[in-house]
Design a protein that fits this description.
Layout lengths: L1 H44 L9 H17 L14 H9 L5 H6 L3 H8 L1 H10 L5
InterPro entries: Troponin, Troponin_I, Troponin_sf
Family: Belongs to the troponin I family.
Protein name: Troponin I, fast skeletal muscle
Length: 132
């Protein structure tokens, strides 16, 4: 009785493995048929592409276009170095607001701090004198 059970179990396992092998080959055939059908459809409905140049030329043109887009549409002019004094630069930036004597009248910053320190300096600030 035990030998019979073993034989039945072995037979089942053998049948299972045979069925799995048949199913695997059927799946392979089906996928190959789908690929062939897809290739046929594309050949029928989509004509092959005819490019004027080689693929490498197109890629280089594409890269050049991307570079052009990144740089912007205008060519940058070459810049020249300009030597300018600090006063001329301030005049160019600030216009008529800049005067050399205003900068010289500021004086020593330590003197201003000493004037504002202590009660006298605070009293002046409240009265509106501010020491400035």
């Amino acid at each position: 009785m035990e030998k019979r059970k073993r034989a039945i179990t072995a037979r089942r396992q053998h049948l299972k493995s045979v069925m799995l092998q048949i199913a695997a080959t059927e799946l392979e055939k089906e996928s190959a048929a789908k690929e062939q059908e897809k290739a046929d459809y594309l050949a029928e409905h989509c004509p092959p592409l005819h490019l004027p140049g080689s693929m490498q030329e197109l890629q280089l043109e594409d890269l050049n276009q991307k570079l052009f887009d990144l740089r912007g549409k205008f060519k940058r002019p070459p810049l020249r170095r300009v030597r300018m004094s600090a006063d001329a630069m301030l005049r160019a930036l600030l216009g008529s607001k800049h005067k050399e004597k205003d900068l010289r009248d500021v004086g020593d910053w330590r003197k201003n701090i000493e004037e504002k320190s202590g009660m006298e300096g605070r009293k002046k600030m409240f009265e509106g004198g501010g020491g400035e």
